[in-house]
Q: What sequence folds into this?
């Protein structure tokens, strides 16, 4: 198989389908989404058998338990995909929205109209349900999509692709509006990220290695998500009950997620009042603590274990029940720590002080900045986007959780009545 | 000189200055802009002598007349730079604007806050006044800037840089907030576009060759402006008086600009009614016409010269008194032509038909789409942006004229009262 020619042919079909999608109205797009949901429901047996092949291959290839778990398409996960499609169908259509339409002194009327980006390339790893999530967001936002899933889920993804094609056909849309790469050839990724004539943006979903490789090779803009090294800073003007709840929730609500707190910063003035209770709660949850000298002394005095944190700990995205803890002099020291070590994903301050809260909100340069709330809220659903294609740690185009709007752009529109430039 | 180390040192200083700029309030930023204006006014003699050196070198190096003209800093151009600074000072500050602040079912309040991008790298060619325009937009939007002008304007740019430093100092801002590269070493561009730790976005301003080279080499996002192959389509439901005025203005108001019409498309039904009058007017202005067979026949019958257009003419950005003309069957044929040949900068339809106007506006995928107005309006000032750093032909981040807003991003802000994720 000539992988270059194959990927180019997908690009050409996607570009043509993207044009049809861009002018398809909301009703047609929603009809397709619901028809895909219907096809998934009808084809449960087919999906289960395709997924079974992937699971068997995975076991033969000694995939670890976590990967196998992600790979499995249980009936509940199929229900989840169907429900996700219905939710995306229920969202407002972002395409065509006209804003800021104003008259100018010359007499022309100028505004902005929201438009699809065109063709989205999505590269992801093992979870086959991403195929449906990604396809639904691209379709709703009037784009075509080329999806490249992990090789370990190839049969599941192809079965899902069949359902998507059925749904598109039922709504009278081109079945090339969503194309799932049919080969496990690793060269497909390299080709996809350089198809600059046919693909407008690449969204990688996966581990840091994948995203770094794609950013390096891509000649197309990439909406990327690197680390989530998130901080909670407990200020000495904090309500200590809120501080305890937020610091506990941000770490222990879920460990393997990008918006979990990885480093806790505590103002010197309240460290002795808040750290012993927190340390006991973390210890009870089995969270390993790694602290600066001052925090270790306080935690040791309260009979909990806390090893010495190294420079690497301040930079670590553990994605695990491990927490770095540092006592800082004040909010400025906390913001300096964040400036130096944060991955600029999400940071929260706990304080009752108006001026400090306002300064933290204004001055901390991360994609989400919070006052008196758990970092775990940094999420497209929690923010009301309805769904997310990822969380961007970039500053350009889209920052933070990316929903339908991040898959669109805005063009200028001008209405005149024969106006010319004098 | 170690160009790599030098550019990196600029990057480090810019990053630090960017942090100060990001938290500087509007009053301080405006004070700096007005102080720069004052310094330019005081240092006119110095500017003239530095510019004189560049002009002498340019003449010795046989620069052509157009380049020498762009290079010259006349008193009127210095007035223009001063006036530009005052206008930017008068614009609303985009930084800190909070939008879409809403409560979510969880009880948290979520919104977006506009923030500077950080450090902007700008690479431009001969015009030294770009140094002031670019610096003023970066400062007002709370960013630091690294400016790399053409080697032929190095002395003028350094003299302007001195005025900018004075103005920054007068407002108590770091004089590294705007750094003008002090070497003409061509390696500086290659270094600047790969300083991914210190520079957040690159804005190239110049010819296609420069922009293509930068896009190829950059490891940082680029806000780029490629061709302006703009179209006017005269529909058979057009008011022919408006059609004449717009088609004449879009071509002849200025030739060397990206928003000038390069191809005129005319519906078959009105070609005989509108082309003879237009051809006579173009001929009077010395505009060379290159047409399809049908348009040539009509223009020849009215005793004007029109050579045969080749495929290259449909793709050409002439930036000159040359116009490609094509008769098309209807609006769909016009949109097909635009789809195939346009650079997606600006297209206009002239029509009185509601449905066709609406379809053209919705379906044409260009950064500006107009009804009954001259393409010459596609401009940051005409659109009310106050100033522009360029016109983006990209779809990602900023599309069309880019003003202060294009130099910013939005972060999410979350206000809670001790909220945790359940």
A:
């Amino acid at each position: 198989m000539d992988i270059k020619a194959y990927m180019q042919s997908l690009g050409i079909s996607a570009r043509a389908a993207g044009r049809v999608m861009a002018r398809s109205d909301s009703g047609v797009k929603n009809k397709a989404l619901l028809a895909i949901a219907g096809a998934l429901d009808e084809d449960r047996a087919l999906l289960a058998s395709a997924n079974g092949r992937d699971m068997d291959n995975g076991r033969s290839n000694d995939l670890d338990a976590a990967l196998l778990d992600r790979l499995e398409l249980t009936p509940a996960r199929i229900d989840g995909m169907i429900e996700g499609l219905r939710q995306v169908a229920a969202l407002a259509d972002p395409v065509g929205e006209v804003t800021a339409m104003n008259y100018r002194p010359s007499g022309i009327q100028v505004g902005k109209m929201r438009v699809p980006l065109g063709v989205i390339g999505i590269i992801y790893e093992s979870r086959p349900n991403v195929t449906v999530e990604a396809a639904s967001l691209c379709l709703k936002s009037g784009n075509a999509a080329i999806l490249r899933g992990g090789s370990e889920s190839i049969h599941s993804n192809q079965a899902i692709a069949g359902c998507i094609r059925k749904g598109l056909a039922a709504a009278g849309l081109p079945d090339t509006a969503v194309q799932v790469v049919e080969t496990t050839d690793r060269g497909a990724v390299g080709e996809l990220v350089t198809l600059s004539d046919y693909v407008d943006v690449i969204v990688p979903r996966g581990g840091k290695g994948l995203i770094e490789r794609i950013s390096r090779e891509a000649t197309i803009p990439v909406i990327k998500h690197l680390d989530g090294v998130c901080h909670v800073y407990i200020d000495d003007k904090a309500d200590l009950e809120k501080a305890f709840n937020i610091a506990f929730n941000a770490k222990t609500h879920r460990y393997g997620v990008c918006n979990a707190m990885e480093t806790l910063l505590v103002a010197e003035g309240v460290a002795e009042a808040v750290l012993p209770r927190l340390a006991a709660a973390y210890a009870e949850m089995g969270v390993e603590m790694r602290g600066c000298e001052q925090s270790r002394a306080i935690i040791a005095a309260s009979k909990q274990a806390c090893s010495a944190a190294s420079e690497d700990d301040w930079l670590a995205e553990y994605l695990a029940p491990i927490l770095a803890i540092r006592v800082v002099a004040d909010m400025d020291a906390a913001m300096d720590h964040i400036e130096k070590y944060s991955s600029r994903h999400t940071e929260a301050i706990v304080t009752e002080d108006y001026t400090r809260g306002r300064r933290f909100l204004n001055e901390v340069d991360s994609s989400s900045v919070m006052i008196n709330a758990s970092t775990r809220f940094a999420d497209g659903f929690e923010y009301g986007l309805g769904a997310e294609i990822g969380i961007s740690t970039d500053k350009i185009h889209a920052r933070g959780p990316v929903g339908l709007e991040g898959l669109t752009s805005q063009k200028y529109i001008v209405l005149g009545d024969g106006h010319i430039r004098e």
Observations:
- Chain B has a mean pLDDT of 96.
- The longest strand of chain B covers residues 408-419.
- The radius of gyration of chain B is 24 Å.
